[in-house]
Structures are given as C-alpha cells and as structure tokens.
Amino acid sequence: MLLDVRKLSGEFERVQRRYAPEAFQGADDYAVRAPVVLAFEVRKDRDRYHLTGTVETTLELACGRCLEVYPEPVRAAFDLRYLPQSANTGEGEREVEEDDLTTAYYRDETIDLGDLVREQLYLALPMKPLCREDCGGLCAECGANLNVTTCGCPQRWEDPRLAGLRALLDERKD
Ligand SMILES: [Zn+2]
Ligand SMILES: [Zn+2]
After folding, report:
1. Distance of CA 123 to CAs 77, 95, 118, 161, Å?
2. Which ligand number lies closest to the CA of residue 149?
3. Nearby residues for ligand 2 (ion, Cβ within 5 Å)
4. How far is the CA of 67 from the centre of ligand 2 (A)?
C-alpha cells in the first residue's frame, strides 16, 4: 500500500486504489466490511505533496446502546500535505503538533497509503455509534434488546439530568 512518489509524472496526478477489506483487519474499534476505495489527486511542489481525496468503505461498528454490530457507511474526505521525513528531524522544532491532522511525512520516496486509510477511518468513527437514531437500547432491568422484543419490566430508569430539571421545576411551584 505504498505510493512511490518518484513514479508520479508531472505536477498533478489522479490516483485510485481499491483494497480488500482483509487488508485493514485488526483495529480495535471497527471491522472493515466492504472494499476500501481510495481516490485522490496529488499535487507536487518540489519535495512536498498535497493529497486531496476520499476514502470510502463500510465499517462494522458496535451500537453504543444495544451493543449489536451494524454497518456504518463511511466517506471520509481528506486534505493532507506530505513533507519529507527529513523535515521532521533535528531538535524537534519542526515537529508537528499532535492535533495537526493535515500534515504527514513520507520517507524513502514513498507515501504509506495504508497509514493514510487507517487514520481516515479512525477519524471517521462516530463519537457515539448508533445502529439507528431511535435505537431502543437494552432494558436496564433484564437486558433485553428493546429493538427486537418487549419485556414486562417497569421502565423505572430516568435520565438523571431530567430528574434534576424536574426537581428544579417542583421547587419553583412551591
Ligand atoms: Zn442499537
Ligand atoms: Zn426488561
């Protein structure tokens, strides 16, 4: 999954790669379920490369409410500047801030597209994965998946924030 920058002809080039899902196994937070399509444009400026494009695939995530795995289609757009690794040595004064997500480094005249894809998939992960907006989640009493079944448990659980609000409203009534 390496891009040999010496093979880029001219100042501008379009690149498209397609990888089997198996190429991206082993991540903790997700599984890749569909082929990964990487498409981008490269602009060369001396020893720097500007890559803009997209990573598209379908991930398999675990729902944060009902814990079932579900497919999450992903289309991540990126805009990255690749500098030679040599620009990142020395006293660390050129070191990139940890939250700088737009600068990356290449070495040995190759850009690691596998790293690029993994990074973009990671950034594309939703903060709170949900199998669907109105996922019913699990019953707090018996653990039944309320999307597929109903249980007879009294629904005693109340959002603590709502409880706080209610207490406040009750106070005002007095
Ligand atoms: Zn769910
Ligand atoms: Zn229940």
Report:
1. 10, 21, 9, 30
2. 2
3. 139, 141-142, 144, 151, 153
4. 16
> pLDDT band for position 52 (50/70/90)?
very high
Cα–Cα distance, 79 to 59 (Å, whole number) = 21
Torsions phi, psi for 131 (to 5 deg): -65, -30
CA of 114 to the centre of ligand 2 (A): 44
**Interior CA angle at 15 toward 9 and 19, to 5°?**
140
Q: Minimum-distance ligand to the CA of 67?
A: 1
pLDDT one-digit tens code per residue, 79-94: 999 999 887 765 555 5
One-letter amino acid for residue 90 of the chain: G
Q: What per-residue string of b and e applies to 60-91 under the rule 16 or more CB within 10 Å gives b?
A: ebebebbeeeeebebebebebbbbbeeeeeee
How far does residue 55's CA lie from ligand 1's centre (Å)? Answer: 25
Task: Give me the residue spans of the domains in the chain.
Answer: 2-124, 138-174
